[in-house]
Design brief:
- The protein is α+β, with helices and mostly antiparallel strands.
- The chain is built from five helices and nine strands.
- The strands form two sheets. Strands 1, 3, 4, 5, 6, 8 and 9 form a seven-stranded antiparallel β-sheet that branches. A two-stranded antiparallel ribbon has the order 2-7.
- Helix 3 crosses helix 4.
- It is globular and about 60 Å long.
Length: 256
């Protein structure tokens, strides 16, 4: 095939495949008000999340238009949740998860919303105060993370009770409240998506164009990457979190 070579835009970050985010979680073993040990229930507004179970046992409880479900988790199993699905990781014994997150960078920028009670969700400043944690991984941060988890469980149990009874009104209102909370963040998210996940997909299109033109010069940019956790044992939403800071695609969780 003749014609001018198709150039691949240089300088883009080299993300993980598909520009996904990656972290490792050990589910919290704190007992909640309902006697269940586990994490803070929440949803994501635009990101699908996947759990790959690497050790131990447990479950993930979900609320969605399908109703309430409890999905068993054991080594080798995978579970994933699309945007709007409320999920709660449940500890069954030394549960260890590798998390794959769509649209790397967006969850860290506020895509996740906790199932706090309605009066907290209705007040952005009150929500931010309840959702934030002190820096570090010491006892003060642990205590704040547990209070945050307990408040999320409080709201979650009301949503679950209504949904099980056939009333999806509170669940749908929670989704709307979550959307209102994050609306002002959308321009920032759009830029993160444009320079991360979208740029990665567009790069594949440019590579296909180059191959079709018989000019695979982009293969001269081939390289290998490596990374190690940049923080161990942080306090995430579902449990203690080992995170990676992959420049250009994944942001650190800051105070978590």
């Amino acid at each position: 095939m003749s014609g001018r070579p198709v150039l691949v835009k240089p300088g883009l970050p080299q993300p993980l495949p598909g520009a996904v985010g990656l972290s490792h979680l050990s589910a919290y073993d704190w007992e909640a008000a309902d006697g269940v040990c586990g994490g803070s229930p929440h949803l994501h507004l635009v990101c699908t999340e996947a759990y790959v179970v690497t050790g131990g046992r447990g479950a993930v409880q979900t609320l969605s238009p399908d109703g309430y479900r409890e999905i068993p988790l054991e080594p080798g199993s995978i579970a994933w949740f699309t945007p709007g699905t409320v999920h709660r990781m449940v500890q069954g014994g030394e549960l260890r998860i590798t998390v794959l997150m769509q649209n790397s960078g967006l969850p860290e920028a506020g895509d996740a919303v906790f199932t706090f009670p309605p009066e907290v969700l209705a007040d952005p400043s009150r929500y931010a105060e309840a959702a934030g944690l002190p820096p570090g991984t010491g006892p003060e941060t642990a205590a704040a993370a547990r209070r945050r988890r307990d408040l999320a469980v409080e709201g979650y149990l009301g949503l679950r009770e209504a949904l099980v009874a056939g009333d999806d009104g509170p669940y749908l209102e929670f989704q709307r409240a979550a959307a209102r909370l994050v609306r002002d963040k959308v321009p920032t998210w759009r830029e993160l998506w444009r320079t991360g996940a979208l740029a990665t997909a567009e790069r594949t299109g440019a590579q296909l164009d180059a191959l079709a033109a018989g000019e695979p010069a982009y293969l001269g940019e081939a390289t290998a990457q490596e990374a190690a956790p940049t923080r161990l044992g942080g306090f995430g939403m579902c449990g203690r979190r080992d995170e990676y800071n992959l420049p250009g695609t994944t942001l650190p969780y800051g105070s978590e």
